[in-house]
Amino acid sequence: MDYTESLRGVLVRKINKAERDLQQLKLDYCRFVYGISHRSKVSCNDSVYLVKAVDLDSMVRNEAGEWSKPQVSGVLLDSNEKPVGKDVIQIGKRWELVA
User: Fold this and answer.
1) CB-based contacts of 55, cutoff 8 Å, min separation 6
2) DSSP assignment of 64-82
3) Contact assessment for residue 36 and residue 42, using Cβ atoms and an 8 Å cutoff
4) Does the pLDDT value for residue 99 go beyond 90?
5) DSSP string of 29-54?
6) Strand-strand pairing, 71-77 and 47-55
7) How far apart are CA 42 and CA 50, in angstroms?
8) Tens-digit pLDDT profile for residues 7-49
9) Residues 51-55: contacts with CB within 8 Å, 24+ apart?
10) Strand 96-97 vs strand 83-92: parallel, antiparallel, or unpaired?
11) What is the pTM of this model?
């Protein structure tokens, strides 16, 4: 019984580490493939937003093994790139990176 409990503990720690590593790899993928992070600017429907969050769980693998764009949320910016209020808006996956 002690061996089983010990083995369970080791496996749980390994699974937790693998999940953290996958999340970090997804963040790296977003940053290097899509150029997106939590301070990027994106456009959607003729509006520009400052990204506040990147939803890594929304990323899906396609047939080629690549990951889809993540859903993002952010704050609307005015023409001077200043935040319009503090409301964080769900932007979804239909965003384009603003250079």
Assistant:
1) 70, 71, 72, 73
2) TSPBPPPEEEEEEE-TTS-
3) yes
4) no
5) HIIIII---TT-EEEETTEEEEEEEE
6) antiparallel
7) 7
8) 999 999 999 999 999 999 999 999 999 999 888 999 999 999 9
9) 51/91, 52/88, 53/88, 54/27, 54/30
10) unpaired
11) 0.81
